From TrEMBL:
It comes from Lentzea tibetensis. It is an enzyme of class 4 (lyase). This is 6-carboxy-5,6,7,8-tetrahydropterin synthase. It holds the Pfam family PTPS. GO terms for molecular function: 6-carboxytetrahydropterin synthase activity. It catalyses: 7,8-dihydroneopterin 3'-triphosphate + H2O = 6-carboxy-5,6,7,8-tetrahydropterin + triphosphate + acetaldehyde + 2 H(+). Its EC number is 4.1.2.50. Pathway: Purine metabolism; 7-cyano-7-deazaguanine biosynthesis. Belongs to the PTPS family. QueD subfamily. Coiled coil: none annotated.
Length: 130
């Protein structure tokens, strides 16, 4: 079994509505976000190149063009927390990436700085993501 992971970072703002004014995440603020995508594969693609990571290239482009330097409240439905963003990216992968990624996708983890991180497990055969 192989575990293949890719990491992406981007900077974006967000606001979590309803937080007390004393909370450190109150109001519009910026984070350096980190995304980790993990594939679990029983076998590798038959090639001499970096095929497994190349299969994730559309996700990297999505992160750099649609999330980088954006206000995440304009991108996601609901408060843009690490957990909601991880679920959004699992759904995006399922909708936009090929069979190899959708068959081997294990999880997407998102962190907003060092203090908080969420992982969405991509359970095959079920939509474990809301």
């Amino acid at each position: 079994m192989y575990e293949i992971s890719e990491h992406y970072t981007f900077v974006a703002t967000h606001e979590i509505l309803g937080l007390q004014s004393t909370h450190p995440c109150h109001g519009v603020h910026m984070h350096q976000w980190s995304v980790e995508v993990v594939l679990f594969a029983a076998s590798l693609l038959p090639t001499d190149g970096p095929a497994e990571t190349a299969a994730l290239e559309p996700l990297r482009r999505y992160v750099t063009t649609e999330l980088e330097a954006r206000h995440l409240n304009d991108v996601l439905v609901g408060d843009p927390t690490p957990a909601r963003l991880a679920g959004h990216l699992v759904r995006w992968c399922r909708s936009h990436l090929g069979g190899y990624v959708t068959e081997t996708l294990h999880s997407v983890a998102v962190s907003a700085g060092r203090a908080s991180r969420a992982r969405c497990l991509a359970i095959r055969g079920r939509d474990g993501v809301r």
